[in-house]
Amino acid sequence: MIPVVLTIAGSDSGGGAGIQADLKTFHAFGCFGTTAITAVTAQDTRGVRGVHRVPVETVVAQVRAVAEDLRPSACKSGMLGTGEAVRAVAAALDRHRLPRYVLDPVMVATSGDRLLDREGERAVLDELVPRAAVVTPNLDEASLLVGFPVRDVESMARAAEALVSRGARAALVKGGHLESDALVDLLWDGAEWREWRRPRLATRNTHGTGCTLSAAIAAGLARGHDLPRAVGDALDYVRRAIEAAPGLGSGHGPLNHMVTGGA
Question: Catalytic positions, please?
Answer without folding.
Answer: 174, 206, 208-211
